[in-house]
Amino acid sequence: MKIHFYLRFSTRQGQDLYICGNIPELGYENKLTSQPVLMKYKSIDFWEITLDLASMPPDPVQYYYQLKMEDGSMVHEWGNDREIRLSSRHDDLQVFDTWNHAGEYENAFYTAPFQEILLPKPSRKSGKKPPKSYTHIFKIKAPLLHANEAVCISGNSEALGEWSTDEPLLLRREGNWWTIELNLSGLSFPIHYKYGVYDTKHKTLVQFENGPNRILLGDAREGRLTIQQDGFIRLPNSTWKGAGVSIPVFSLRSRDSLGTGEFSDIRLLVDWAHKTGLRLIQILPVNDTSATGSWIDSYPYAAISAFALHPLYLNLEEMAGKKNAHLIKSLKKKQKQLNSLPDLDYEAVMQTKTEAAKEIFSGEKENFLDDPEFIQFFNQNKPWLVPYAAFCYLKDSNNTVDFGKWKTYGRYTKLAIDKLTSPQSKQYDQIAFYYFIQYHLYRQLRKSVVYAHENGIIIKGDIPIGVYRHSCDAWVSPELYHMDQQAGAPPDPFAMKGQNWGFPTYNWERMAKDSFQWWKNRFAQMAIYFDAFRIDHILGFFRIWSIPISQTEGIMGHFEHAIPVHRVEFDEKNIYFNKERYTKPFINEAVLWEYFGNETETVKPIYFEEAVYGNLKLKDFVDTQRKIVDYFEDRTTETLDIISKDALMNLISNVILFEVEDSEEKQFHFRIEMESTSSFRYLDWHLQNQLRDLYVNYFYRRQDNFWKKEAMKKLPLLKRSTNMLVCGEDLGMVPSCVPDVMKQTGILSLEIQRMPKDISREFFNPASAPYLSVVTPSTHDMSTIRGWWEEDRIKTQKFFNEELGQWGDAPYFCDAWINKAILEQHLHSPAMWSIFQLQDLMGMDENIRRENPHDERINVPAIPNYYWRYRIHVYLEDLIKAKPFNEQLREMIKSAGR
Description:
Blueprint: E1 2-8, E2 16-21, E3 37-38, E4 40-41, E5 46-52, E6 61-68, E7 74-76, E8 83-84, E9 92-98, H1 105-108, H2 112-118, E10 136-141, E11 149-155, E12 169-170, E13 172-174, E14 177-182, E15 191-199, E16 204-208, E17 214-216, E18 224-232, E19 242-246, H3 265-276, E20 280-282, H4 316-320, H5 325-330, H6 332-339, H7 346-368, H8 372-398, H9 414-420, H10 428-454, E21 458-463, H11 472-476, E22 481-482, E23 485-489, E24 499-500, E25 505-506, H12 508-512, H13 517-529, E26 532-535, E27 544-548, E28 558-560, E29 565-566, H14 567-572, H15 579-583, H16 589-596, H17 600-607, E30 608-610, E31 616-618, H18 625-632, H19 639-652, E32 657-659, E33 667-670, H20 678-681, H21 685-700, H22 704-720, E34 725-728, H23 738-745, E35 749-752, E36 773-776, H24 785-789, H25 793-803, H26 816-827, E37 833-837, H27 838-842, H28 876-880, H29 883-895
Parallel strand pairs: 1-9, 9-18, 10-18, 19-20, 19-37, 20-21, 21-26, 26-34, 35-36, 36-37
Antiparallel strand pairs: 1-5, 2-3, 2-6, 4-5, 6-7, 6-8, 10-14, 11-12, 11-15, 13-14, 15-16, 15-17, 22-25, 23-24, 23-27, 27-28, 29-33, 30-31, 32-33
Helix pairs in contact: 3-10, 7-10, 8-10, 18-19
């Protein structure tokens, strides 16, 4: 048998096209290895390849295309649904394909949430079964059909219906494709045809597709089969729009919860969302963060496991069942007390739930471990569950999460942990307790997810960009991380000294060796619970802000990976290079007075010593920020100590360059915001201008293509590993290559009204959002609409006049009608999704919203150890009954076409 592949694609000089598949002729070697096969250039519109098959493959031929770029990188087309079923009736096969660009809007509609939940099911009254004899197969994708609609085809021949609108030929749905087999023998070619949409209920043609006629070339000779795969039907592809609500699980409040929102409360939120027309519920990360046993663990982005769920979200009553009802009854007083608090008391809730869960486990462990459902859960999750349970046991028994301080097992070895977690070990009951917890968390969250799906609502999760330094993941696989570095973010208006998240940065080179299997496992675990997810700080896949472990403030970081400035570049620009002057904190008498004022002579002999050229340097015990923090940790809170600590921290960052480790003094990174340093100000004007030019080149010119390549090594491969809808949080200092990569990969961007990506604008207009995006007026890291309205009177006034189009003075407080107007701006945006914090939705109703909007903020990024404890002030049961508010919101969503 011969197979001729023809791919419609116009390449540029230096590009090549390849084909890969599951048979040896298409480069298949084994499940782990395949070699793409080079195709031949045929014309400006086509590439081709012909295969001679020695024998008939036992399975359908599955294949896909790859594009080799000018720089050697490979771009995969999207999807894994190309399949050919071979038959001995045909000895010659022609396949005409269309390249499936990952950024096509239609691809989003073939993700799990759309196919399984959001889109109506296609009409079952569609095409007939294949005839006994046929010469051609036509295939097309049409994701946005309404109920009772099917794809039809018509053309300029009798076999294609002679352009009939009364009885066009109906295609049938097979997987993602609409398909029809036709016998075109005896017809003259080329044949002109079009696809259309047919209403099977009313038996009428809805419309033919847009654009010119399609043209079928070739012939219909005996023994030859032609498969015409035409890509997507040419119909409007940006018509589907949805609205959603965003709220952390811990922020929910119900009458049955115990001091915090629980997984079971999601079902009540689903009831409310269904009543108002919302189609999506977005939550913050729900992984276990219980590292210290204190309120600091309320930070949801520092998980001790990227796979385990947080015990905070357990519903004890569902866990206990009828057998332990007496225990739940004894907790009613405590439940009422914790639920009456305005905010989450993290430590009290965790203590109460842990003690109760241990008591329940004590009575259930014998039967539980033999439960077939648990055994199935255990076997499916064993690769992460066993190390996690052992980690939690060792964390508790050593009274620290820092595995570097454990007496034994500080270095993970599978053999030792298998022995520790064996059912025969004396610690087994203590370890199995964590199996018990995770099993019930799994059941409760899955129950809520299934309930959401039954009500036509999808759940969107959140993947943190980093892992906790003292996490189970870092313990098991430290080689995947740079443990001597810390991830963070550069300075911005919300965090003037940048952010230090404390997470180790990823060792991407090591992760690439197994094709990022850790990430694929993580996505697979997410897919158990979520239909869509937000990649926190997606810029980290381009480059991450990396801070040495010896420093503590984000301002001391640099982008990694990044192309450094070479020593030679200074010489080429005639810049006198003084390594000591540029890379060490610049301190002279004037600078010292600038930081310490009248206390200069007091602190000078304590912290400083003489250096070259009459300057000063920090003594060894305070020459890094980490040392300074440690030194002042146990000292008094006297004013001088506070002044000294802050001043010393600032002096550490008073540099122009950071030397690249092991570069032999030849490579350097610029310190961000160099011009704000006194080190820079004390340089002469000419030298300042020379350094400024190099600085601009370093941050805004040389990195862009490099960062794009870094992202394209990871994001397309990882996105192909999941069928969830992928959204990216692309905020902050955004490289210019990011929007293009998001478009190329089909990842939804995040657009926020008060954080425009266009630096020439003060506000982003939701009406200008791209279709593949999420628009929102605020996030958990920001104040709500009402809170923001009171922060900056000048900005508020400008927004009131220019963005809302209102005359006169802006109200001092954000009246309900203003809040509503902002919501409507976002609802009428062309973006696929408009997602709102629950606080912002409640803000449009004077009777429901909280009195003080500043009590509604979830997080303040500028505060390193912030207590994440916000809870909504109304019970979900009451929100469901708030008829005027719910009807108003439903009408707003409906009128916006969402």
